[in-house]
Amino acid sequence: MKEKKEDNLMEKIVSLCKRRGFIFSGSEIYGGLGGTYDYGHFGLALKNNLKLYWWKKFVDNRRDMYGIDAAILMRQEVWQNAGHVANFVDPMVECEKCKEKFRTDQLENKNKCSVCGGNLIEAKKFNMMFETRVGASDDSSAISYLRPETAQGMFVNFKNTVDAFHPKLPFGMAQIGKAFRNEITPRDFIFRVREFEQMEIEYFVRAETWEKYFEYWKDEMLSWMEEVGIDMSKVHELEVEDVDRAHYSKRTVDFEFDYPFGRKELFGLAYRTDFDLKNHKLNYIDEENTDLPVGKAEKMIPHVIEPTFGVDRAVLALLLSSYCEEEKGEEIRSYLKFKPNIAPVICAVSPLLKNKIELIEYANIKVFAPLKAEFGRVMWDDNGNIGKRYRRQDEIGTPFCIVVDFETLENDTVTVRDRDTGEQERVKVEDLKKYIQEKIS
CB-based contacts of 394: which residues, under 8 Å, 6+ apart? Predict the structure, then answer.
């Protein structure tokens, strides 16, 4: 296996993503819009598989989690009381000469512009929320914001969830959705963007138990990363110092990843105390407090543990973890070593020759259609010769390529090629479903 060169690995990933229909620059035909990206067919499939697996692990397979899909637009009071209007800011400097703007905390030289060498003007605070207006009125009451996080949509629905389901502590609320931040300097492909997606949990606990559940959720997050195929040797825990924590957090652990452009944040785990529920004036009737007389209940404010997963950063970390190169003679074979449960395509079906009707009909009716009905993520590929198809499917990350050839017509067996080893074996058509199911299990 050939060593991956970190200096051009990002270039290879970006090129592969465009070439194979994973990710494109936003508004590309008009010159692009900074910090925005569009997911193509396979990128969307990869992202959806990550989200489905996350939802299955943290919501469907649990008894203490309630899902929600809150509106992106909320009243401005939500963000005022949550502290975002006053505190959701980044320090910003501007070049005196070329007027380029930078985040102060991302600069090596705080005095000189990295673009033109000009002097940088003194830092000022920049609120990253996108401001908009709701309705026809143009006074201040119409101001709203595109949400910079999904968390507040869960907090403002805390009472609704408690009233509807009467959950006992501890319990959580989970949401997958878009968030928006007007980043000063979006960069590094989909790592830092202005429109992104989060998978987030607000887990409500009694104040005295927060440390236990903080450790529990740290282990759960690490477990999920490993299960989806993120390279755990590149994942590191960082205890965030007081000065760097968000205004609502009493403790934060960042899970960082070794990207080609440096060790940067991948996911985060925060102890938000009772900050949000208290500011929204929300409480909980604790009927489980055994210290109180029978028939009495206590109003209390739960504390919150918040595991946050960025979908786009998960996609990038997974692409970087899965990318492999192998020397084959004078050529280099590149492929994405996705786990089958996450891969955009589980298997691709090909007739050996695309101009032989008998091969096409057999492949389509007896192989492709049954597998498509069973697994969904099955692709038909008859473009180019068989070698080109293998290379294309390798870069898509397809674990298995199934070829219908002339021997198939004689004995009802097909060739199944393994993406990682390149090895091929004959499998009976009637056994294909079982064969693939055992492989992906």
Answer: 333, 334, 335, 336, 419
Grouping H, G, I as helix, E, B as strand and the rest as coil, residue 283 is coil
The identity of residue 85, as a single letter, is: V
How far is CA 408 from its chain centroid?
41
Contact 35, 186 (CB under 8 A): yes
Instruction: Locate 432 and state its tokens.
Output: 């294909």
Q: What long-range pairs does 205-208 form, CB within 8 A, spacing at least 24?
A: 205/169, 205/170, 205/302, 205/303, 205/304, 205/305, 206/169, 206/170, 206/300, 206/302, 206/303, 207/273, 207/274, 207/302, 207/303
Contact between residue 284 and residue 162 where contact means Cβ atoms under 8 Å apart: yes
Query: Which residue spans within 108-194 are E strands per DSSP?
Result: 120-127, 130-133, 143-146, 171-180
CA distance 201 to 220: 12
- In angstroms, rounded to a whole number, what is the distance separating the alpha carbons of residues 372 and 231? 30
pLDDT at 103: 82
Low-confidence ranges of the chain (pLDDT < 70): 1-7, 289-297
Whole-angstrom distance, CA of residue 6 vs CA of residue 46:
23
Q: Note the pLDDT of residue 260.
A: 96
Domains of the chain: 6-75+150-320 (3.30.930.10), 345-440 (3.40.50.800)
pLDDT of residue 198: 98
pLDDT of residue 282: 96
DSSP-derived pairing of the beta strands 171-180 and 65-67: parallel
Helical (H) or strand (E) element with 257 = strand 251-259
What letter represents residue 325's amino acid?
A: E
Alpha-carbon distance of 200 to 308, in angstroms, equals 5
Rounded to a whole number of angstroms, the distance between the first and last alpha carbons of the chain is 26
How many CB atoms neighbour CB 15 within 10 A?
12
C-alpha 82/C-alpha 75 separation (Å) is 12
Three-class DSSP category at 339: coil
- Bridge partner residues of 58 (DSSP): none
Confidence at residue 2, expressed as pLDDT on a 0 to 100 scale: 43
The neighbouring-strand residues paired with 373 are none
Inter-helix orientation angle 41-55/311-322, to 10°: 110
AA letter at 381: D
* Strand stretches in 73-226, DSSP E: 73-75, 89-95, 101-103, 120-127, 130-133, 143-146, 171-180, 195-205
What single-letter DSSP state applies at residue 56? I
pLDDT of residue 92: 85
* CA dihedral sign, ordered 293, 295, 300, 304: positive
Q: pTM to 2 decimals? A: 0.91
